[in-house]
Amino acid sequence: MADHARTTPTTDSTPSADSTPSAEDAPPPPFxxxxxxxxxxxxxxxxxxxxxxxxxxxxDDDSAALVRALRLSPGERPRTLTRFPAGVASADLVxxxxxxxxxxxxxxxxxxxxxxxxxxxxxxxxxxxALADLEDAAGPDLFALRFLRSDALDAVxxxxxxxxxxxxxxxxxxxxxxxxxxxxxxxxRPGSLAPGLLLGLLNEAAWMVHDGYASAEDVDTAVRLGCGxxxxxxxxxxxxxLDTARDVLxxxxxxxxxxxxxxxxxxxxxxxxxxxxxxxxxxxRYDEGAGAAERRTVHPTAPPGRNVVVIGSGTMATGIAExxxxxxxxxxxxxxxxxxxxxxxxxxxxxxQRTSAAAEDGSDDTGPAPWTATxxxxxxxxxxIVVEAVVEDLEVKRRLFAELGKVCPxxxxxxxxxxxxxxxxxxxxxxxxxHVLGLHFFNPAPLMPLVELVPGERTSAxxxxxxxxxxxxxxKRTVECGDRAGxxxxxxxxxxxxxxxxxxxxxxxxxxxxxxxxxxxxGQPLGPVRLLDTVGADVALEVQRRLHADPALWTPxxxxxxxxxxxxxxxxxxxxGKGVRAYLTARAAATVPAAVAA
Length: 598
What we know:
The chain is α/β, with parallel strands linked by helices. The protein has 22 helices and 16 strands. The protein has helices at 40-51, 63-70, 102-115, 135-138, 166-178, 194-210, 216-227, 233-240, 242-254, 264-271, 315-326, 338-354, 356-363, 394-407, 423-427, 461-473, 489-505, 511-520, 528-535, 537-549, 560-567, 580-597; strands at residues 32-36, 55-59, 80-82, 93-96, 122-124, 142-146, 155-160, 182-185, 307-311, 330-334, 371-374, 385-388, 413-416, 436-441, 450-455, 477-480. The strands form two sheets. Strands 3-2-1-4-5-6-7-8 form an eight-stranded mixed β-sheet, with helices on both faces.
């Protein structure tokens, strides 16, 4: 918004204040909302409110913005399009949706204060500026409407300035409810909850592509299949707008919130005019006919082999062995003792029996391949493929690969299923750099559709192609990434969970509010608290420590609350429900008597 003294031209291409009247026999809308600023965010808000049947006045001093709004379909076009200040005084709610710089926000809010009726609440879309820094300009009854992307406005986070009254708050909630927008009331902090947490994760995904660590397609596929997202983080950045995301990340970083600087690839793409979905291309293409990028694969010159040995007897080892049996491989689970082998065989056999009906109804014509569990290490001498799935201990894995290098046939594919240790450090003792790589399954291995392929510096193209063929025969989708701690999924997921714990420890949100906001506003399948309790605080602490120790990564140290959870053995689901919520409740109860005594 600029030059408020200009008058609205009444041409065919530029609407006047009365250019879009409603139908005569339509029922009167319940509320009138003025949206000031018709850029991407303001236009999306206008469309959403109009579709819900509210009377929307779209206000902008830019003729091009007014024309864009006029070209919307009748069911999405604001009933009135005009220049400032027309329409402000007649609104039941005013939404300021101009670009993010705080100085511009303050100037527009100050102008709105002069023209809106007393008692009319005003919503700002400021995400990186605290309401306390805007309230002097805006006056009383100021609120912040915070969300991650304007194309998904079913839910928002709503923050309240200190001088906002209860009546104004009730009016805001009533109007949002009338628009079908669920409001989660949160404290006032730059970045809010879901937007700030998820932008940090999205930025790290962009850094992976910038560093050449993984392709945009593989990063998005990994997060969709490994975390259950409906779309990948880079597709989410494209939907937000790469210019918008870059600017918000830069401002949040300047505030010292612990966010990494925006990935340079964001600047590079923006300079090319690749702004994401709104420009037709960003990390992905969105123009007509654009499809998924095709991976260039190197096909093996020989079959991957039929004899698989899975080493280990824990949950991951038995899951991988079960998946291999189902995939038609002759599978041997190699345990440390006959007792462990028998226990593992019982679990695998039970799992196969549970789904035997699927084979009987014709979904599997061949039935399970031959398999066994043993502690006899001589089986390694005839293995085509070995998958190590022992305890996540570097020295244990190094000793094992030294043995594999000595006893396995020369062309055996040797894979580690490590989830957080460097593949090269685990496997170099085998002395066969061309034949080793990481084959990272996700738990439960028979069900999770993703496998991360992690070649080492000297892994041959033939070995990589064989490993991909193995995974695809198991019905898995593969992604490829470089060899560093956490690979794709864990390197993105665990710092996000760690930061969520920092917010909780600082009292920025309750566990219930945080989970609701991330599910509803952030579109996550699980909130971070429930997800952490499912994974286990001990697992999260170990992975976060390894990520933090890797000099190739920009990962904060484990949150103090994460350390406390493990020390108190509040690990989540594995400790009968003693997780984050129970720990924080107990800690709060313990501090009350001390505070009273003081």
